[in-house]
């Protein structure tokens, strides 16, 4: 099957460019856990962001704009959650919300749940607040602006990877392959839960 180049590939390339273009903003010598690296230090964050991208790819089969709207909503609301964390607001269920996001997103892809884009945006926006909040309260640096740019760039990259992977797998092997990836995200959530 011949693969066409969809617009989201441009989004993926832009994500990589943003990630590396903003590197000076979060490259702090002596900080092993800078903004860009922080999302990669927790598998729950990685699995959730990949899950959002996969679900966006699944929904894009019926509503092509979903491949952009879900990741965009996630990044915007993640920034809002981070702002709340930096402002000192308390969100005691944030860690639980992150773990639930992994299970729910993996499950939504596994069982191929199609909902209207507004509903999907609401779901990912809620979880994004938890992720952004936790990134903020775990910030190891006083440079909140650079730190925030870093983890938002990393998040955008992970979302693009999830969406790109989902789109390619769906094109090559169909919905069953994409659903299997959702199962892997779900299994990843179980692994995180078992190791906590």
Largest sheet: none
Low-confidence stretches: 1-32
Number of DSSP E strands: 0
Helix content: over 70%
User: Quaternary status of these chains?
Assistant: single chain
Indicate how many domains the architecture comprises: 1
Percentage beta strand: under 5%
- The overall pLDDT average reads 83
Question: What class would the helix/strand composition place it in?
Answer: mainly alpha
Could you spell the SSE succession in H and E letters? HHHHHHHH
General shape: globular
Radius of gyration: 16 Å
Distance separating the two termini: 42 Å
Tally of separate helices: 8
Describe the structure.
There is one protein chain. With 196 residues, the chain is mostly helical. Helix content is 74%, strand content 0%. The longest helix is centred in the C-terminal third of the chain and has 30 residues. It starts with 6 loop residues before the first helix and ends with a helix. The N terminus is likely disordered.
Nutshell version of this structure?
74% of the residues lie in helices and 0% in strands.
Attribute tags:
single chain, 196 residues, 8 helices, mainly alpha, 0% strand
Provide the fold topology.
Elements: H1 7-21, H2 23-26, H3 43-59, H4 66-86, H5 94-110, H6 117-137, H7 144-173, H8 175-195
Helix pairs in contact: 1-7, 3-4, 3-5, 3-7, 3-8, 4-6, 4-7, 5-6, 5-8, 7-8
């Amino acid at each position: 099957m011949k693969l066409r180049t969809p617009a989201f590939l441009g989004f993926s390339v832009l994500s990589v460019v943003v990630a590396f273009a903003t590197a000076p903003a979060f490259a702090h010598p002596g900080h092993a856990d800078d903004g860009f690296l922080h999302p990669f230090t927790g598998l729950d964050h990685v699995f959730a962001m990949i899950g959002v991208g996969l679900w966006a790819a699944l929904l894009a089969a019926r509503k092509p704009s979903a491949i952009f709207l879900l990741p965009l909503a996630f990044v915007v609301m993640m920034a809002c959650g981070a702002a709340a964390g930096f402002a000192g607001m308390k969100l005691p269920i944030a860690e639980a919300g992150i773990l639930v996001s992994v299970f729910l997103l993996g499950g939504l892809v596994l069982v191929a749940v199609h909902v209207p884009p507004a509903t999907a945006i609401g779901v990912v926006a809620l979880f994004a607040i938890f992720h952004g909040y936790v990134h903020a309260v775990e910030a190891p640096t006083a440079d909140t602006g650079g730190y925030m740019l870093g983890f938002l760039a990393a998040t955008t990259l992970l979302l693009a990877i999830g969406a790109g992977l989902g789109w390619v797998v769906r094109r090559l092997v169909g919905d069953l392959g994409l659903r299997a990836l959702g199962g892997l995200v779900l299994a990843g959530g179980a692994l995180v839960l078992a190791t906590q």
